[in-house]
Amino acid sequence: MTAPMLEVRNLVKHFPVARTLSELLARKPPKVVKAVDGVSFTLARGEVLALVGESGCGKTTIAKTLIGLEEQTEGDILFNGQLVGAQARRVRAAMLTLETTRRSLEDPKTLPARLALRALRQRAQMVFQDPYESLNPRATIFEIVSEPLEVHGLARKRAERLASVTAALEDAGLRPAGDYLFRYPHELSGGQRQRVVIAAAMVLQPELLIADEPVSMLDVSVRAEILNLLRDLRRSRGVSLLFITHDLSTVAYFADRIAVMYLGRIVEIGPTRDVLSNPQHPYTKALLSVVPVPNPRLRRRRVILQGETPNPIHLPSGCRFHPRCPVAFDRCPNVDPPLVMVGERHAAACLLVNGQ
Amino acid sequence: MSDRWFLLKRNLAEFWRVFRRNKPGMLGAFLLGTAVLLAVFAPLVATRDPRETVRDSSGRPLTFASPAVHAPLGTDDAGHDIWAQLAYGARISLLVGFFAGSLSMFVGSLLGILAGYFGGWIDSLLMRLTDILLVIPDIPLMLILVASVRQLNLGISPLVILVLVIGLLYWTSTARLIRSQVLTIKERQFVARARAIGAGHVHIITRHIIPQVMPLIVANTVLIISTAILVESGLAFLGLGDPTQPSWGTMINFAFSRNAITNGAWWFYLPPGLSIVWVSLGCVLLGNVLEEILNPRLTAHHLEGDEKMVSRAEVSGAEVSSAT
Amino acid sequence: MFPLSTSTPQPLLRVRHLSTDFVSADGAVAHALEDVSFDVYPGEALGLVGESGCGKTTTMLSLLRLLPAGGRIVSGQVWYDGVDLLTLSEREMRRYRWKEMAMVFQSAMNALNPVYTIGHQIREAILLHEDVDRAAADRRVTELLDLVGIAASRKEQYPHQYSGGMRQRAMIAMALACRPRLLFADEPTTALDVMVQAQVLELLKKIQKELGLALVLVTHDLGVVAEACDTVAVMYGGKVVEYGPADRVYNAPQHPYTQRLLEAFPDLNRPGDSLASIPGYPPRLNALPPGCRFEPRCHKRLEVCAQVAPKLIDVSQFQEAGSRKEDEAISSFILRPSSYKHIAACHLCSGPEAVWL
Fold first, then answer.
1. Sign of CA dihedral A215, A216, A222, A223
2. What is the DSSP string of C55-96?
3. For residues A69 and A61, what is the distance between their CA atoms, to the nearest angstrom?
4. What is the interface pTM, i.e. ipTM, of the complex?
5. For residue C109, what is the nearest residue in chain B, using CA coordinates?
6. Cβ-proximal residues to C113 (8 Å cutoff; 6+ apart), any chain
7. Would you call C154 and B303 a contact, using CB atoms and an 8 Å cutoff?
8. E runs forming strands in chain A
9. Distances from the Cα of C264 to the Cαs of A205, A300, C218, in angstroms?
């Protein structure tokens, strides 16, 4: 069996919290925010995996770690079976010591780790949530879309860059590209801007596209276009998608598999159809029940969890969901349930489904 | 690069379209522009050399001649033409102001960008340094510095000393301003996006940070130039100017030390004083308007909500129940 | 249309032919609203729904007469309990705001003052508008917080100690401080997480029922409207393109825009393999198409659409020819005969021209 395109093994990301002066004086131990606390999943070529959860569940931190914006505390990220990310710092140090022997650096065989990091950067790209914020307001569309080429030293000739940028823009549905090349982001609508972001991500021909809430800032009529564009890109380019969202209804159209996250953990993961039609974890059930249905006749009983996601500094004991769980029982505060298979490729982390 | 040229032209046209309708801005540009023209064309507008003594028909020097006697601005105690002094003095004042202002802007921007972007110890060091410079009164400090450097007789022109001292002491406010701007820019999503692409620090600073702070730098340079002109005038008034190349401040110093006031020779001290006001007002008006116009267009969308935070205030009352 | 007998409840808010312009600094005029009419009955929730720039927020601000600089109401009437708000002086109008008609904004963090406690801010709102002493005001604060589900112990906490959902609850409590009869909520759930969205929506429905409030819910989210509203006004390009009981608008949409919008809304209950999308972008208010404003994006457009703006057509009759089963569903849903009115602005719709009483 070939290695999956992306494999994440037991990923942990803790952010230290700055101590106040009084805490320092009282010699209290430093606190950490456990943003991601042991997450594993794989993503096959051309597959769409949706990471679903509320804010603070760690889904965006996973994206940032994958793309190299954050460094994980623990765990491994494998891209095509090759380890990346974790060694980012080590690789950088190696690059510094090797700076004197520059020529050997240019030889790909001498430093595979550097290449692996580069490969990830180049082959995994991210689409951010807010198309109003993720474009430099003082750069033209051409500058924005050609920036990745420039950073990676590809298409050094201007004519080549122009050709690549034009192709990327047209693939992203901005046709004719010439109308957009020398305009500024503020001259475009939200949907057009998000297309520019997608074009800039696709210009490097990545194998993995990480989309963090790519449509939540857009109007409904435009959302569908962007979703359909992502779907087409996946179909035509075979690009894998890690789709991060809090909106289950969007996912239903889109994802092959769903991973539901709560407080830094995956609580349920499985094929979309199974998770949506046969949810096992009470949190998944609650999330599904509150998805708005655009029909007043279909108003249903909704499982509305009280309170909000607790602070990831002070995690509840046992199952982290138990303080808000409608079906919690006496063992829940004591046992931290592992993910257990409940069907084909379908797993959930709940004492009730495990039969434990 | 025809498209780049086209973009530049379009941006300039757009800028001019907005600027043209801005009355304070146009007034500022006019004030500054006339002063620059006066300096550039000094030999043409002043028919005499400022060091030439004006004499009456009998060959006696015309001292303290009023504008009525000797057009257009009379003469000083030695019979030198004030108008010529004013025109040539504009060169000195504007040059010192321009170079000192640009130097301070360069130092301030560089340090502000580095401190804001990298943070950490660079930031701490820089901010402590600005704190120290901010609490020391600047005019006495500069007096001491200029005087002691001159004592060393290094053969540096007094004007260069002035430029260096003003330029190297007046960057603190700029550095703080730029730093705070950089702090907000580096947290913006397009910078995160550039990092996600794999861009390095140099790329991010030159492509994303500097273009965002450039308007602030441009507008502030104009403002700092006016400060530099004022400071130069002050120092020159206190006798630290170059007597062989009199600036407007030096002129006032001469007027003061040669009893122009007791002689009622208002044409000696008033024109340089008003010129300083003229130029500083022009700079301030222009600077403020530039900042207003060049500010990046931040069109916010009304669907945008509060930023979501990873850690949030603890929620008490996380009761467990299900509702319908 | 319907005889005004004493048994027929009167609308609390009657908006008729409201038009609002925005004049920019360089003198250009944008017609932000044109001929907007709708009713809001006591105890009823109206959803003003549309995409950004469609005029839904402008409508709310026009009704409250809180338009930003450059905005002015050109024509129309806003009847609130028999009084035309547009004829009132600014001072008289102030009596209506907050005491009669209160608002909940999208960004609770910006609407709350960070340097005062939540309890203090609500108390001040009460003391400002009502002639009561501090102790009475304080009791009312506790009552209000209890109503919105905030423990009394959190009364003396500051906004930054509240989470997003709690702040939105505090905003609702503050809006209810002076016992208004009409509540405007502008995107009250947009910035919140799904679960908190559901909580806030549930709360709005609960207080609406308990206090008999009329609610105007301004949102871009069709799901929220379906969940909470009795009537819907769909806006596009500054006009109401479809108006009617929620059940009918959702299940038998007459305007192509409404139809497409509903098809574009992802629905867990009908996962298809492709979402419908509407090509193009909403019109800019300073460059509106001459005919129907939706014409450039419409999939059903006729030649006439580009030239002539469609009239508002009453499609209630047309709908009543529907199946028996559907009628039953409607009758169980609709409370008042006047709410039966279903109106759409499209050349494809047939029926009498809508008459606004």
1. positive
2. SHHHHHHHHHT-PPTTEEEEEEEEEETTEEGGGS-HHHHHHH
3. 9
4. 0.81
5. B306
6. C121, C159
7. no
8. 6-17, 31-43, 48-52, 74-79, 82-84, 124-127, 208-212, 240-245, 257-262, 265-271, 340-343, 346-348
9. 29, 21, 19
pTM (2 d.p.) = 0.80
Q: Are strands C214-219 and C45-49 parallel, antiparallel or unpaired?
A: parallel
Write out the two tokens for C346: 């499209």
Task: State whether residue C244 is helix, strand or coil.
Answer: strand
Is the Cβ pair B208, A134 closer than 8 Å? no
> Six-digit token pair at C139?
């009791």
Residue ranges in chain A whose pLDDT is less than 70 = 1-2, 85-121, 354-356
Residue (of C20, C55, C66) closest to C218 by Cα position: C55
User: Does the distance separating the beta carbons of C154 and B305 come in below 8 Å?
Assistant: no
Instruction: Give Cα separations from A25 to A15, A21, A30, A342 (angstroms).
Output: 21, 6, 12, 50
C117 closest CA partner among C146, C148, C160: C160
CA quadruple C205, C208, C214, C217: dihedral sign: negative
Contacts of C59 in chain B (CB under 8 A): none
How far is it, in rounded angstroms, from Cα A58 to Cα B62?
Answer: 86
Closest listed residue to residue B209, CA positions, set B187, B190, B185, B180: B185
More confident residue, B240 or C292: C292
Neighbours of chain B (3+ CB pairs under 8 A): A, C
Question: Looking at this protein, which amino acid is placed at residue A288?
Answer: L
Where helices occur in B136-265 by DSSP H, the ranges are 138-151, 158-169, 172-186, 189-197, 201-204, 210-235, 248-257
DSSP string of A35-90, one letter each residue: EEEEEEEEE-TT-EEEEE--TTSSHHHHHHHHHTSS--SEEEEEETTEEESTTHHH
Chain position carrying tokens 């650096």: A105
Phi, then psi, of B296 in degrees rounded to 5: -60, 140
Distance from CA of B110 to the nearest CA of C (A): 35
- C197 and A290: CB-CB below 8 Å? yes
Distances (CA, A) of C301 to A277, C289, C293: 38, 13, 11
C333 contacts in A (CB within 8 Å)?
Answer: 296-297
pLDDT at position B188 is 87
Identify the CA nearest to A136 among candidates B192, B118, B302: B192
Q: Give one word for B69, left, alpha or beta, with left for phi > 0 and alpha for psi -120 to 50.
A: alpha
Classify residue A121 as exposed, middle or buried by CB count within 10 Å of its CB (0-12, 13-18, 19+).
buried
Which residues of chain B fall below pLDDT 50? 1, 296-324
Q: Which amino acid is at B211?
A: P
Percent of chain C exceeding pLDDT 90 equals 22
pLDDT, tens digit, for every residue of A237-274? 889 999 999 888 888 888 899 999 999 999 999 999 89
Mode of pairing for the β-strands spanning A257-262 and C239-245: unpaired
Q: How far is B216 from chain A (nearest CA, A)?
A: 14
Provide the pLDDT for residue A119: 57
The pLDDT value given to residue C242 = 94
What the block records as the tokens of C289 is 């198409």
Segment C133-159, tens digit of pLDDT: 889 999 999 999 998 888 888 888 888
Spatial neighbors of C91 by CB under 8 A, at least 6 apart, are none
Neighbours of chain C (3+ CB pairs under 8 A): A, B
Regarding predicted confidence, which is higher, A233 or C110?
A: A233
Cβ within 8 Å of residue C230, ≥6 positions away: C44, C45, C46, C245, C246, C335, C339
> Could you give the CA distance from residue C180 to residue A146 in angstroms, rounded to a whole number?
55
Task: Please tell me which residue of chain C has the smallest CA distance to A297.
Answer: C247
Distance separating alpha carbons of residues C236 and C224, to the nearest angstrom: 18
CB half-sphere exposure, A4, CA atoms < 13 A: 17
Smallest CA-to-CA distance from C284 within C90, C55, C50, C53 is with C53
Q: A268 - beta bridge partners? A: A260, A348
- Rounded to a whole number of angstroms, the CA Rg of chain A reads 22
